[in-house]
Amino acid sequence: MLYVVIAFLFLGILLYFLLGGADFGAGIIELFTHRRNIRKTRTTMYHAIGPIWEANHMWLIIAIVILFVGFPKIYATMSVYLHIPLVLLLIGIIARGTAFVFRHYDAVVDEMQVVYNNIFVYSSFLTPLFLGIIAGSAVSGHIDVQADNFLDAYVFSWLHWFSVAVGFFTVALCGFLAAIYLIGEAEEQDRRRFVEKALILNIVAVVCGALVFVAAQVEGVPLLEWLFGNAVSFTAIVLATLSLALLWFLLGRGQGKVLRVLAGFQVTMILLAIGWAHFPDFILLRGGDHLSLLETQAPAATITALGWALVLGSVFILPALFYLFYSFQTKPIHDYEV
């Protein structure tokens, strides 16, 4: 049952990145959209993510609950030593969701709409930035549980070149995913604009990915060894590269569903390549220590109860979630005009 819980943990992280990340990416796209196209962009975005933006955070909640219940030592370590970026992440999620609702459903349209817009787009950028910083910090080896001062324990555990580079890489990937997803939602005359944004954001993601490698070299993070030092990670990187080439080939044709599958597959392979290299270690600590999912689990009875709860819960939740996606995709796009 332990491996069932671990599978749900990684599934929750993956789906949050693919779905919640695309939500953040929609705000990132809006942040860099010209004023003459902003209305069309918001209309398309509301149609795509408006009904389900809150449901996407379910995956983050599931991952947090699994860590809290099933791996309390890992949860406690992250909560203590990464509490600053975690708090900023949560503030960004709350601010973004609040602004999204207020600017769309506020009964009075006045100058506060500008405030709501700014909160939405900038929190859409900063939230995945801190999400990536947290992920990078967990595997960077900078968390020092023996630190005897505030800066070393709670600031330099996450504020370093590698984690920041991973943060910007995460932002670029979120924007890229959103652009790909929105291609299938846009009307014919507006689709070309999202294709161009997808190409630009994909280039930005590649550049940010290169910066991650540079930062890893500077910080002494064995990223190259992780990605090319075992058959699974190497194969995943090759498949991600091939899917990228195919995606570029098909991008100009605007085939929304195929592009979504390719983009999701590419991101999945990237996460698999990185995660597989140091599995079952979830957090790599300074000095070579680590926190393993196979060594820090809760008592067997707790893991068994958690595993059954996840399995039975998915039986009820997943069909309802798929129906939610389906039901709102059948609504005409002008229902979300703003």
From TrEMBL:
InterPro entries in the cross-refs: Cyt-d_oxidase_su2
Its membrane topology: Multi-pass membrane protein
Any one GO CC term of the record: plasma membrane
Main location per the UniProt record: membrane
Native source organism of the sequence: Rufibacter hautae
Family in the record: Belongs to the cytochrome ubiquinol oxidase subunit 2 family.
Coiled-coil residue windows: none
Bilayer-crossing regions: 6-32, 53-74, 80-102, 114-138, 158-182, 194-216, 228-251, 258-279, 299-326
Subcellular location: Cell membrane
Name of the protein: Cytochrome d ubiquinol oxidase subunit II
UniProt keyword list: Cell membrane, Membrane, Transmembrane, Transmembrane helix
Gene Ontology process terms (BP): aerobic electron transport chain
Molecular-function annotations in GO: electron transfer activity; oxidoreductase activity, acting on diphenols and related substances as donors, oxygen as acceptor
A Pfam family reported for this protein in Swiss-Prot or TrEMBL: Cyt_bd_oxida_II
